[in-house]
Amino acid sequence: MLMEGLRPGQTYEIADAYIGMYQKLPTRVIIHRLTEEQTKKRWKDQAIKEKKKGIIYKERSKRLSAINVYITNIPVESVPAEHVHKLYSLRWQIEILFKTWKSFFQIDKYK
To answer: In the chain, helix, strand, coil percent, each to 5?
Structure first.
């Protein structure tokens, strides 16, 4: 399995991946194995969620939670693999900001 081949903190990139059922679109797949500290924190958060929501994660889900997988069509020349996580983190913060604006200021009502 690929995950066992990655050391904690290591990143692996599949530069020529294709996705799509009918039209194959070229993408990059970047797989990053979390450090042991990050993995423990994620498992702790999962345990809290299990208890709070009364669910039980399958063992496979717990193993997979030790990695981050990014699928992007951004060229490697524009954003190297080691910067993809930061870019996606920033994008996620922007998503949360817009969600907050929509909720509090109802910006989705204005055009």
So the answer is: 50, 20, 30
85: in domain? no
Q: What is the pTM of this model?
A: 0.77
Q: pLDDT digits over 61-104, tens only?
A: 988 999 999 999 999 999 999 999 899 999 999 999 999 988 88
Q: How many domains does the chain have?
A: 1
Contact between residue 18 and residue 8 where contact means Cβ atoms under 8 Å apart: no
Instruction: Examine residue 52 and state whether it is found in any structural domain, yes or no.
Output: yes
Q: Say if 94 falls within a structural domain.
A: no
Asked whether the beta carbons of 96 and 102 are under 8 A apart, the reply is: no
The 8-class DSSP code of residue 58 comes to: -
